[in-house]
Amino acid sequence: MIHSSDREMEQRLSYKPFHSRKFTERHMAAVEQSIRKATLAAGNHRRKRIMIPVAFVFMLILLLGSVLLINDLQNRLGLLAMWPEAWPVETKPSQKKEPLLSHDTPRNKSNLFDGTKLKVGDVIVGLTAVETNFQQTDIDNPNEVYGSATFSGEVELTGTYMIDPSSSSGFTVSFYPDADSSGKIPRLKNDTRNSWFAINNVEDAQKLLLADKGTGKATIVIENYNIQYRPSDVFNTASLIQVKSNTITSRLTPEEQERMKLWDELSKRGSLMDRPVSEQLDGLSMADLILGLKHEDNWVRWYCTYRLGELLDEGNKGQIEAAIKPMLEDEDFLVGKAATFTWSLIKGTPEADERFVPSPDRSVYAFYRYGESRFNDGKTWLLENGTAKLLYHAEAGAVYDFSWSPDSRWLAVQFGGRNWSNIELIDRHTGKEYGFTNPVKEIATAPDFGYGISLDEALRFDPWVSVAKWSGDGKRILLQYSFNDEKFNPYQGYASYNLHSKRIELLFKGEVDNPAELPADQQWMSP
């Protein structure tokens, strides 16, 4: 196909112009040369227009090939070719070879291992096996593997710990790693036990953890991790070498924390404040009471301080003494009073405490406990030759006061409740009760005494009686009494009581507005 520009050029070359006189051959040659240059320029322009699309297509093909090559390198090398930091860096090979595990891996990144393949020198999560003794007990079951292994090296762990010196499980200090730390210590792959271990250097651990017993949270460093796995009661162990952080959550063992719930409940109810002793508490052990000394409620500590003295004997004297001694410095005043009382029992020094009432011959002391409370347990005790024994336990009410006979044989015990009282005489040698009946009812109702009170109509009779004095021969006692009549009028007076005849001999009456005065000895002691 002939291009239009070519045809035009041929016409120009074949054109024979009219030769005028002025038109010379030289001019003609110049014209022809100009035409040839124009033709050559037109051809070059045409070739350029063809080359530009071809070059563009070639560049596209080259770019596509480069992209395919890069993707192939990414798939083969796992690198991000577009990011320089991901390009492989040439490193020199290590001069020190790591010990190979029997699993044909240079280092086991998992803490699980196969006991039958573990060898001395193998490294599990950074710890090196120095002793190993595992056996497959069942040929058909490769998971039945028992034995032991010891690993050298140090590892830092975070978790909780328990210190229990009274534990019967064969260990005193145990550590329970958290989820992250559990993966830092080797573990037999068929071991389904909880991830915990015992600390074998107990004394060092107690010093480092700043506690003889209790629980807490800590970050520690251990070494010499030992695995024991057998179909018996065995456990893993390790040595504690450093404590990096420690938070003591309780200075009680878990068992003690469980038993402390009894004191928590009593403290919540406030029952110790109203009446500290009940049948529920009679079965408490010495360990329960010593535990109660650590309670935050001062009334619990007060009660336990008194009650421990009731359990005192030669067999446990040292233990109770060690428990009571710190209570002497208790910040609560009432606890301190209970502690000094029990300390006097322990040391055998009742004369230093006025709460111990001596007999006239100073051979024996009468006492009762819980004197700071509104009510007590109604028990009367005697301390003789350093030994305490129970003399009398009132069926109802609390003990208020004592009064000895001149010959130190009889002890008058006053006891009662919120609006009544009574007395009983006890033979200190035999423990026999005199069988005293409340004389106030007789005084208030008997016609001979002139009061004539009807107990059915006296809604608040409130009978009260106590021993005011003993006669020198011990045959009579002077009683002080009080009561209310039907109109709530109070009466008070004194009565001379004959212990041999068991009858009231003389009455010293007081009026409502004129209470009776204590009679002279010659007035009431003579028949």
Protein described:
By secondary structure, this protein is α+β, with helices and mostly antiparallel strands. It has twelve helices and 21 strands. The strands form five sheets. It has a five-stranded mixed beta barrel with strand order 5-6-8-10-9. It has a four-stranded antiparallel beta sheet with strand order 11-12-13-14, with no helix packed on it. Strands 18-19-20-21 form a four-stranded antiparallel beta sheet, covered by helices on one side. It is elongated and about 180 Å long.
Describe, in short, the structure shown.
This protein is of the alpha+beta class and 527 residues long. Helices cover 29% and strands 27% of the residues. β9 and β10 form a beta hairpin.
Widest sheet, order of strands: 5-6-8-10-9
Q: Cα-atom Rg, whole angstroms?
A: 54 Å
Fraction of residues in helix: 25-40%
Annotation field: number of helices = 12
**Strand proportion:** 25-35%
Oligomer: single chain
The biggest sheet amounts to:
5 strands, mixed, barrel
Low-confidence stretches: 1-24, 78-106
Q: pLDDT average, as an integer?
A: 82
Structural class: alpha+beta
Count of distinct strands? 21
Label the overall shape.
Answer: elongated
Task: Report how far apart the termini are.
Answer: 173 Å
